[in-house]
Amino acid sequence: MKPRVAVALSGGVDSFRAATLLKEGGHEVLGLHMRLPPPSPAGRWAAEETLEAREEALRQVASRFGITVSIIDCRDVFEQLVIQPFLDAYRRGITPNPCVQCNPRVKFAIILREALKLGADIMATGHYARISPAPSWAGRHGILRGVDAGKDQSYFLFGLTQEQLARALFPLGGSSKGQTRQWARSVGLEREIPRESQEICFIPQGGYQDFFLERYPGDRATARGPIVDRQGKVLGEHQGLFAYTIGQRRGLGISSSAPLYVVELDLPNNTLRVGGAQDLDCPGLTAVGLNWVSIDAPLAPLRCSVKIRYRHESAPALVTPLSADRAQVVFDVPQRAVTPGQAAVFYDGEVLLGGGIIEEPLTVHTRAQAIRSPL
Predict the structure, then answer these.
(1) How many domains does the chain have?
(2) pLDDT at 27 over 70
(3) List 74, 99, 201, 282, catalytic entry
(4) How many CB atoms within 10 Å of residue 121?
């Protein structure tokens, strides 16, 4: 008898396709949907009404495929574990990735727990990634890249534990986004779900800047300050460091004969530093909060490739453990715009080895020290 599967239904075509694939494969499927906080403190009741309408629309679509949906109220826990850390990161001058926090702390913790209570054996999501079951990797459950290189979402899953992976399933890992779109057209779902899900699910309209200002209108991170070049010359005024990220070019409000990019957010001095494209090149980084997935935590330097943001092409590097949850990464070739707060994820080909959160970039000096003394 095939296991009973709970599918985390976001309301997008990917999760619906994952659910239907499982039903076609003979699984009993139940749907779970996370009820998240309203997208804005302003107009709360209007947001609640929209939320109810969206949940009813999701139920109606699910019913077409013979799937019942249970709504899991995650508003308080999502606020505590995802939204507040997201906002706190910007207050500290770093650029967070909320998805890498949500997956291990909410989806595969709170939602998985509810799935098991409802009698499911495993939980599936619409991620484009694959799982290599134990004992393929020395008794560990491994994560593999999705076969669609342009849509691979394994990057967002590095924080999952072995216990979570033992109960996880990613039905779309072996297919492409194009196949999902074709299926959506064939069943008329494109008309009912016309747009892709948002990159940041709790900010459906506008940018994170508006969301931040609603929560912290007078915060220190919103104070204006100078924009300076690498030599310290004042070029203009920034609108609050929370509104910028490393590598940003547009929206700086300054003119220059050559393109200028954000190279540093100096929070203590409330200063935004800019430079040329060459100033974004970085020899390496330190990462914290490490989680090793497909392999045991290494005790010696490890050759692998490292991905420093979702759309970054992973680059060859040497990863040297510094402690149980901290490592140094030295790239073979300097990489552009290493950004504190983003995830650094380690791969061996298609195998996701592990990852952590970027703590700080390395300087040329620290890179030279690392090469001379890797331990």
Answers:
(1) 3
(2) yes
(3) 201
(4) 16
